[in-house]
Write the structure tokens for this entry.
Amino acid sequence: MQPRFVDSESQIRALRATRLAKKLAGVLPGKGAAMFAVDETLVGRKSEPVVNEIEKGAVRRFMEALGDTDALGLDEEAARAAGYRSLRAPPTFAVTLRRNPPPGLVMPRAGTIHGEQHFTYGAPIVAGDRIAVSSWLEDVKVRNGSRGPMTLVTVATEGINQDGVSAFVGRAILIVTEAAAR
Amino acid sequence: MKAGDRLGPYNHEMTREQLVRYAGASGDFNPIHYDDERAREFGLPGVIAHGMLNMGLIARYLSAALPEGARFEEYGVRFRAYVRPGERLSLTARVDEVVKEARRSLATLSIELMTGSGVSAVTGRARVSWATDVEETRPAT
């Protein structure tokens, strides 16, 4: 722990709590609970795309973090011999690409649990590509779990490469519990 | 590769070092993956592995078992239980279907990642494809 940061951290937390309380007062009138709430009119609104340049070093570092020894993601010659222009990124690399969050969606900074993840792949992601990534809110559901109510937020993400071809569409179901919403 | 084939079990020990490396490589610095105290504030038993790390590891082991040059067409998982550092994981997959087209084959796999105590941590499905003029198998790494 770093005690010298505690003051500013707690201030940030207090500020965030106030902001959330104000937001909830508007969204859920009469419900004083610390439920996480999402404005459903935001569904389907795409965020401004962020262009990601796919770097060889980033692909290699990601492979190494997973202990992945597939030559297509580590050895450029092997990738070329297999018909790729450069290193081929592994399937879950898409999650590392920068994107703006869905417009208006503010998730708790910590404590959100990733419940499900799904990808549909198009063109392979290869080093040197420029992938424009945007995201949007797709669905919001409230469920009663064993530890109280939880909000299930489906966030979709799409990456389109420099040739205008979809490289992937991702869908994440994020679970916000009471503890995280506070 | 044909319907009914089983892949694995592939064993993997999750380590704290891997969580830190994955945080760095993926850019996911959510403190529940490196700060025990913050993780407990959110009702967790301590730090847990990133769901995407589990998903990435599954893809790594499957890629190594698939015909050379295979690619994922679709890949979806459900994260069912927390995976903590020190956990000895075991991955198995079953080939549900193989469809041979003119120049490629497509296989659908069911996947399960279990903890050492036999709890199902991640389940899912993948649809993979490979060119049919390449070797059918290569050894797992």
User: Anything to note?
Assistant: Residues 6-27 of chain A form the longest helix (22 residues). DSSP finds four helices and five strands in chain A.
